[in-house]
Amino acid sequence: MPNPVLLNNVDHHDLTVTVVHDAAHGDAVNQVLLFPNEFEAAQRDYPILFRRDDRGGIYAVALLGLDPDDNLFLGSDGGWSASYIPAVRQRGPFVADPSGTGVRIDLDDPRVRRDGSGESLYLRHGGTAPYLAHVEAVLGVIREGQAINAPLFAAWEAAGLLRPTAIDVDLGDGQTCAIAEILVVADDRLDTLDAETLATLHRSGALRAAFMASASLDNIPRLIERRQRRYAA
Questions:
Q1: What is the pLDDT of residues 62-92, one digit of tens each?
Q2: Could you tell me the pLDDT band of residue 101, with boundaries at 50, 70 and 90?
Q3: Ramachandran region, residue 118 (left: φ > 0; alpha: ψ -120 to 50; beta: rest)
Q4: How many domains, the chain?
Q5: What letter would DSSP give residue 71?
Q6: Residue 167 belongs to what domain range?
Q7: What is the DSSP letter of 129?
Q8: What is the torsional sign of CA 32, 37, 43, 44?
Q9: 77 C-beta neighbours (distance < 10 Å), count
Q10: Which pairs from 170-176 meet CB under 8 Å and 24+ separation?
């Protein structure tokens, strides 16, 4: 049962956190939530796809693997072999405090230690250690992403930029993979936007995000190659 408490440098001065990515901590997934303010960094490594939730809202995911519960970026050493790790997987045992002014940590998470191993949260004299500063920045990315999600995707829908599709992937070993019930940015629609719509999308940053998402689909062949290397006989 999670036990999130508000961090402070008195009660938690000696806490450390082991930074590890593995199945035990929820990283063995083939898709992970992604926010628009992450697209530029994420598109270097992952295909960016879109789905609808139960209420019809749109959200983005980074495609991490082509089989259920298979993250092709996880290593046996607890590492994550990509230039960018999505923010919801970087945050570890931390969440933002609802007040917006602090950070909560799950004291029951096994990554949280008091034995001196792992990354320190506070400096010896009470200041914020680099790792906690990084976590605060990651939580800021999530907070900003949550705020811009709905308006950005509403602008895309108004411009007709999202197209429902399914992607059939030839895995090269006699197997295929169908990625169904997804949305992608429609390149042909991007190419034919009128000047007014282009200007509106550009001003809000929605146009750049659309180009980043579109370019990210070039990572699908690389994902196939990554899978072939992992499962080579």
A1: 999 998 899 999 998 999 999 999 999 999 9
A2: confident
A3: left
A4: 1
A5: -
A6: 4-230
A7: P
A8: negative
A9: 9
A10: 170/224, 171/66, 171/224, 171/227, 171/228, 172/224, 172/228, 173/228, 173/231
Residue 114 class from Cβ within 10 Å (0-12 exposed, 13-18 middle, 19+ buried)? exposed
Q: What is the 3-state secondary structure (H, E, C) of 12-62?
A: CCCCEECCCCCHHHCCCCCEEEECHHHHHHHCCCCCEEEEECCCCCEEEEE
Q: Which two tokens stand for residue 214?
A: 């579109």
> pLDDT digits over 150-185, tens only?
999 999 999 999 999 998 888 877 788 888 899 999
* CA pair distance 102, 7, nearest whole angstrom: 7
Pairwise CA distance, residues 130 & 133, whole Å: 5
Cα separation, 156 vs 204, whole angstroms: 11
Q: Is 75 exposed, middle or buried (0-12, 13-18, 19+ CB in 10 A)?
A: exposed
Q: Name the helix (H) or strand (E) containing 199.
A: helix 195-204
* Residues 159 and 193: beta-carbon distance below 8 Å: yes
List beta partners, residue 177.
Answer: 169
Which one, of 29, 63, 39, 49, lies nearest residue 182 by Cα?
49
Q: Where are the beta strands (DSSP E) in the chain?
A: 4-6, 16-17, 31-34, 48-52, 58-63, 94-96, 103-106, 112-113, 119-120, 162-170, 176-185
